[in-house]
Batch of 2 targets.
Target 1
Amino acid sequence: MSTPKPNVGAPIEPTSFPSLGPAGTTEIGQQKDRWTMVFVYRGKHCPRCKRFLNKLNAALPAWEEVLDVVVVSADTEEKAKADLAEFGWDFNLCYGMTEAQMRSLGLYVSSPLSEAETTGLFAEPGAFGIRPDGSLMLVEISNGPAARPDLEELLDGMKFNIDNNRPERGTA
């Protein structure tokens, strides 16, 4: 099933994810004081995701100076806790992303190749820059694990967009 692209410039559907952070839940799409960057990863089964998230964690202080960072997958709480214990990430790690949430963000959705990979549908990688008013400013999605944004370039671009109140692009 094909998923339509999300509408940049439009409010995203308010949604929440269970989180391993102190609040227990993370919400996106609501009015906030700061910008938010949401990174979607495939899950515990993906070694490329771990490399990307380790790089994000190393750069996290620079990111958090500019915006809130949320990382989410369709993994269970147990899998998310196992990854957190193994890698010691400092970002807000969320889990339990539903198929409806994946599709509302325009993500590619995959079925596992075997039970050794994972046992349910999961989202392919994506990154979403969300304005404080809950509208979508930037979208980067991939249909597989090998295509990821350059974190340094993405952060530099987000700083430029925020500092200069740049409009959304790709709206036509």
Target 2
Amino acid sequence: MKNLFLAISILGLSFNHISAQDIHQSEVPSVILNHFQKTFSKASDIEWEIKGNLYEVEFEAGFLGDDHKVLYSRDGKMVRHEEEISKNNLPKSVLSSIKRSFNGYRTDDIKKITEGGKAIYNVELKNYSQEWKVIFDSQGRILEKRED
């Protein structure tokens, strides 16, 4: 029984190691690193990982140290950009949709996710008794809503 548990544990750790692997910045291909440094010259607290065929970088930027996560393909193209934003940076259409559908709720943990040239907004909405995770498109349409 101990051997089975040990084998399962080792196998689980191996899969976790394969699926995401922390790497040092010196191991990032120069085409990716150059694009990153040009686009996010003021980035700090930078951490790199390899996830499958993509390079993921998490970092902070801006006056308040907003969190960012960017995925790059091996040829240096930005595939996805996820950034923490404030309520003031939401499009007016999203703010109107929140006011209409979630009046009385406060916003929390807002992320703008850009992929394939299109942006969506992941917003946590809370009141005294409920909490929702809602994804809006840039026109304010609700794409997904789930109770948290």
